[in-house]
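Per reviewer request, we include the raw input and output of the structure prediction for the construct analysed in the revised manuscript.
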Amino acid sequence: MAQLATTDGLTRLANRRASMPSCGRPMSSTAIGAADRHRPVQGRLGHQARDGCLQRIAEVIGSATANTGGLSARYGGEEFAVILPGVNEERAVKVADAIRMLVARLQIHHPRSPRKYVTISLGVAEKGDATTDELALTRDTDIALYHAKVQGRDCSVADSSLVSSRLEMPSLVPSLPDLEGA
């Protein structure tokens, strides 16, 4: 029963529940990947094509952590998580790039992609001094994934490459004087 509760029925990878920090798996680096422009696959080709696509991507992602002590999981919808204990960000980016290239090699037909096949974007982050806990690590990884999508998809972005751009970004939180006038 425990295995059923922590396994994604479609992909046979761990599910989101199994990848959550409370499961006791130490996290050094994480990668979150999402199939690019995946919803049109379902819209144009149907649920079976979408499910087959996710299963093939899951095989590639699952192989990334096989025999490593890491964990590959379906995080939700077309998103996948890779937890890599004892792996630094540089090495995690290499794993992410390998996943990206292997997914591209599958040549899964995608009628609305500029490349005409399914690609995947990945965000990578490493737990460090500025990352207080696993939830912060997951947030940083998700932000890196967002930047991979913004940069044109079919790429991997490391959280550390975003540090300088974060310093230049204005805060979205209103300052105290702004709140006083409201």
